[in-house]
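Any chance you could type out a protein's amino acid sequence plus the matching backbone structure tokens because I've never seen that pairing?

——
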Amino acid sequence: MDSVVDHVVQHLDPNPSPPLFVAIQGPQGSGKSYLSAQLKENLSQLPYSLNVALLSIDDLYLPHDGLIALATEQPLNPLWAGRGHPGTHDVKLGVDILRKLQSHSQGVELPSFEKSLFNGEGDRLPTGVVINPPVDVVILEGWCVGFFPISEEELSKRWDGVWREEAARLGLPSNIMKNDVLRVNEVLKRYVEMWSFFDLFIQLKPAPIGTFPSQYSIVYRWRLEQELYMKSTNGGRGMSDEAVKAFVDRYIPGYVFFGDIPAVSAQPRWIGKGMKLLIDEERRQLGVEKF
């Protein structure tokens, strides 16, 4: 945590106007929400005493009826069968919130999405958290934060190469078509406006684990642990173990096609100010890389 706090503080203007925007990305269950909350807590206390706005991209999901409408409109695309992939978020709302925080608007409401509702399908709550200026630091965390669209040529290359390999290793269902990924890739173009706000990027990256067949295998365990913990605190509301497996299956294409954040060709403003935290299967930090 000290290295993350130091990374943020060294890029903080003594009189931040606009705020410093920090993006945090990592796979499901990797600890990015915990890291984000701890970062906010550390920066809010002495010696920094900063006003920090924390938003998860999960809180930008479409309301439940919007998710159902999307799945109904695109019945043949399993990537939009539920929340998760780009296309299931209200990007306009996200940009509007970030712009208001940037300009120190009064009374900015940060939405809240409750994942346990509708048997784990989730829904946006009617009210969120209101934050008032001046805001010093804005944190946005999420599994697909910083995902950029790629060229159709690159997508085809990954489809015929790494995607087929990972799908075989993980035993993924064969209902995902190349056109499904192409549609998500097209929608990602709208997300670039959100990413353009961010000055710093922090990525949680699982180190290679030799006992697992795929670099993404650990995500299944982490996400199940996350769901079981949530159910232990809310009276058992949430997804079954089988539903969690199917849920993660649907996310894997996102990691394969768009997850190599430091390698993107778009050259976002955080290049040169990125930090990658390598973690083991117990989420212990093994090392730090800059990009």
Notes: The first strand starts at residue 20 and ends at 25. The chain has one domain: 2-290.
